[in-house]
User: Fold N-acetyl-gamma-glutamyl-phosphate reductase from Psychromarinibacter halotolerans.
Amino acid sequence: MTHNIAILGASGYTGAELVRLIATHPSFRIAALSADRKAGMKMAEVYPHLRHLDLPDLVTIDQIDFSKIDLCFCALPHATSQAVIKDLPADVKVVDLSADFRLRDPDAYQKWYGQPHAATELQKQAVYGLTEFYRDGIRTARLVAGTGCNAATGQFALRPLISAGVIDLDEIIVDLKAAASGAGRSLKEHLLAAEMDENVLGYSLGGKHRHLGEFDQEFSKLAGRKVEIQFTPHLIPATRGILLTAYVKGDPQAIQDAMESAYTNEPFIEVLPFGTAPAMKHVRGSNFCHIGVVADRRDGRAIVIATLDNLCKGSSGQAIQNANLMLGEEETAGLMLAPLYP
Amino acid sequence: MTHNIAILGASGYTGAELVRLIATHPSFRIAALSADRKAGMKMAEVYPHLRHLDLPDLVTIDQIDFSKIDLCFCALPHATSQAVIKDLPADVKVVDLSADFRLRDPDAYQKWYGQPHAATELQKQAVYGLTEFYRDGIRTARLVAGTGCNAATGQFALRPLISAGVIDLDEIIVDLKAAASGAGRSLKEHLLAAEMDENVLGYSLGGKHRHLGEFDQEFSKLAGRKVEIQFTPHLIPATRGILLTAYVKGDPQAIQDAMESAYTNEPFIEVLPFGTAPAMKHVRGSNFCHIGVVADRRDGRAIVIATLDNLCKGSSGQAIQNANLMLGEEETAGLMLAPLYP
Amino acid sequence: MTHNIAILGASGYTGAELVRLIATHPSFRIAALSADRKAGMKMAEVYPHLRHLDLPDLVTIDQIDFSKIDLCFCALPHATSQAVIKDLPADVKVVDLSADFRLRDPDAYQKWYGQPHAATELQKQAVYGLTEFYRDGIRTARLVAGTGCNAATGQFALRPLISAGVIDLDEIIVDLKAAASGAGRSLKEHLLAAEMDENVLGYSLGGKHRHLGEFDQEFSKLAGRKVEIQFTPHLIPATRGILLTAYVKGDPQAIQDAMESAYTNEPFIEVLPFGTAPAMKHVRGSNFCHIGVVADRRDGRAIVIATLDNLCKGSSGQAIQNANLMLGEEETAGLMLAPLYP
Amino acid sequence: MTHNIAILGASGYTGAELVRLIATHPSFRIAALSADRKAGMKMAEVYPHLRHLDLPDLVTIDQIDFSKIDLCFCALPHATSQAVIKDLPADVKVVDLSADFRLRDPDAYQKWYGQPHAATELQKQAVYGLTEFYRDGIRTARLVAGTGCNAATGQFALRPLISAGVIDLDEIIVDLKAAASGAGRSLKEHLLAAEMDENVLGYSLGGKHRHLGEFDQEFSKLAGRKVEIQFTPHLIPATRGILLTAYVKGDPQAIQDAMESAYTNEPFIEVLPFGTAPAMKHVRGSNFCHIGVVADRRDGRAIVIATLDNLCKGSSGQAIQNANLMLGEEETAGLMLAPLYP
Assistant:
């Protein structure tokens, strides 16, 4: 059975990534693509790498006939997203890739995003889109909130350890390395090639990164108590990928065991042999997440390294994984593409 | 129908690329992987990005039971390849990715590769693997000789122009920009990251590059007279991709017309609108080739730019395209993956 | 003797490069830095790599007391530059890094830059800033027009050959590879790291690049007849550097001889042994230009490869070289920094 | 006064960096360059970026007349270094860039380097080369042991905090990001451009990196008790540079104060305003080290980020800084080159 798909905000990187993945998806058909400022253009003009595909032209959102759409990916900026989704017909399923429905608590939303939420009713219905941990809810959801890409990586690394009670919840430090595309196709000076090449720098330091809202919400809920991690993201000179190094206190072997046991049947999460470090490039362009656990020389301390492709598993691949569940398809449909290496 | 595939020389980049592509191929099944020096290892140890796949361990060639193999991709070094293929059972179809069977003339082989050919009988049977121009022969061939990646790019840019007689055959200059992976996974100082980063340099200058053997053979055959182009490859700081700028004399519009007419039904060759330049990154990780024609300010001169991914369309993708034909499958089977961008 | 220097437009890359070079110049002292939109800021806020230096704060141009300035580097955008320089006191020497005074013919300026020149009297007085070929004029000039970075590279490669009459003037093809910083610190989508990484593309194709105005002017003047080259620039994934491959017809050894004889006493131009190719990274961060000549396999054809750092020898280094002459200093003062490798 | 300098092991990256820096040093003159396997070659053949310099040809060590040498930089591999230095005339001052004389305890050397030390007498005389903290000893030393580049970065970040007693010594975590050149010009698969591009990975995980020997020795000595930090280096896709993120417990403002007070008169150490993060590219090619302190959202925790150029301040620049002191020159002589940006 073929499902008609609309992508709102198709001119950004996550929009383009959705199209790339759907291009070889067995049962999804792109029926509409919106991009307000580029309405009227062909997708091949905005993204010539997609020119071999037979795609609808870019339109404005109000030009889309949603009665013919089964599911809508919403890849719009934060705040815009909630305003748009509020007005979509109720029988159109929605996977939102923005931050608008990730936080359940309107106060938390206001704290991290600096403005009141404009669709608090919808916010209540949204299911958090970390597929591996919210499968049942996602299957029956009308609205799924895609997670932050950093938030996804951190949760893949830490949720099993919190659940299994094998680490000290007050001593979690996450040092994250993120590639440029995480910031989207936005014209900012620090994202210029001449600035990024040969550069590494920390940003949103000291607990200012918005994905901390997700970490706080999810880890505290999981632990049944307040959990506040330290989180320091760094921009590294690469295009795709997140690699995260978590410093935790606990028995390294117990940590490895908890990790293996949590992911043993997961098609996209690969736990490496104990003591092995994953590499960011080994998941590029794919929906896989590689995780490694290493014992530190100091007793009772371990390093957990997790890596995924921010545009794929961290956002558009995750979105399709969720859409598969919502539409009754195989969860892995269209997502088994092997990473591009080298 | 499932075809059993062996890959000889699976530890190199073209071997890994074959595995990547076959991972989502609908009817190919990897039955054997050889890598002499790494025999006994798991593929996931050599290429951890493939660890989600259920693959046979690496073996030596003589450990393979070829009676169960339908088709064999031979990704071995030049010279080794001919020695190995000579001894394969005659009912195993072979796609060779080395240079060993590209040149029909043993003297030409000796000239460009510095040693006599050791399997001249086989050399006669081999069909040149530029699919778009040798389809009929490939369909019925037992042995197909994959082209050089630079040679493929240049031929996509120039064959239609030579065939249509729209360019001056004595005035063809090809300036090529090639990424690092074209040199394979070999330990050479100039391929180190610290050396390549921020670097561009010409190599095999003045007519020394071996792919000139292919250009000379194919263009002369096509033109019915001796054609000798100028060919200057440059190494550029990137991992995958070839972008080639050809300077030709002829009417630019006639050149565009010849190009469009040659490729109008080709699934993998995209001719851009007249005056448009392709970009290397727009084909990365895919089997597509983008070609653009631009008129120079000087009358009667045009610039033809062609780009493809050296590991995919330039070698392993081409190999699978040929294998599809040899095994009676859809030519595009497993090859419609969209490029990875950004 | 210390010379007081002002830099107008200090917040761009050429401005920052001037500061970098003057930091270790024995007799230049930075007395004023302007940047209209960033006036009031410290240079260390705009360019933290310069924070160890004791520099004046950024100001607007009209805040500068030019009576205390000996020489002014003008790193402003085209068109702005002519308006500003027109109003500077006549006893302030000026090295302009914009395109405003490169072309002597107001019609040529209008053709290539799309608007009439607003300071045609000044235009007449300006001396073209290609130091190695305009030394005498530069020494006594009040206003020197810095060359285009591509134009400089091409002229270093070709002027000696045109002067010596050793190449066919109707058959000159220049294929140029340029790094990102040539486009300055401007917010353009194609200059984003995520777009440029792993990318190569041609631009201003077919004779549209503005530096052709300089090539036409200089080569025609030198040859005493109209010379129109073919010129195709490509953007390559690097930050600094230009490497240019020129295809010429003529005797390769005569070309090598002409090159060596032209540059034998030049401190910054290195002619490599015959048949040797230069590499872009070998001049990075320096005022040197490396040139190599290679014979093609086809008789009477040669390849000339030249490379320099666009921000240094191609613009700010050249500017200081000229300023040294204008102020009676050693031409090489402050410019003998060795390239940064790797 | 001019000092005659020999560089042993001139064909590696640190050797080339020494030559680059000495090229504009006011009082050092390169009298001899050794490179055993490349003896007989010109330096310009090994490093064409140095071809403008008038340098002695490469020789073997025993071809050098040490009676004419004032100071010898020894950029040889570990173990080789101690064997060579042992035999040098006692009146030749030596700055060793290898690891051979960094550790004072022969057992520690054996533990971290896997073999007994072969020159334990010399080891006792060697002064540890972290200039800012061992100035007096260095001034009068005959043999100075250059520090590890990672070890230098970590000590710049942490020594003032340990000395001032403002951090918890049992809770120091160092997450380090290092560029490729730290591994030298060695032919290793993971250092190939095709492997490193778009890649980030941890290595020597869990306390295996040899520079821990230096951290343990220096921090324990400074604290007067055993201090064992956690140290996780990562390889990032860049050529030069180290950026280190240290997670410490203590009052952030006290940490900032300790840092500022420690470095207030240091010419090469720049402490940024409280809450500011340094960027790796801001020190590239220079002898500067930038340090920033940021308070975490959790009370009593701070993040310290330090960055330097591994080949310059991390090794060859440090070596020249020490040589300046040993030879009675200004400590900053030849080292005030501004960073290369962009």
Q: What stands out?
A: DSSP finds eleven helices and 14 strands in chain D. The first helix of chain D runs from residue 13 to 22. The CA atoms of residues 245 and 305 of chain D lie 5 Å apart. Residues 3-146+313-326 of chain D form a domain with the Rossmann fold fold (CATH 3.40.50.720).
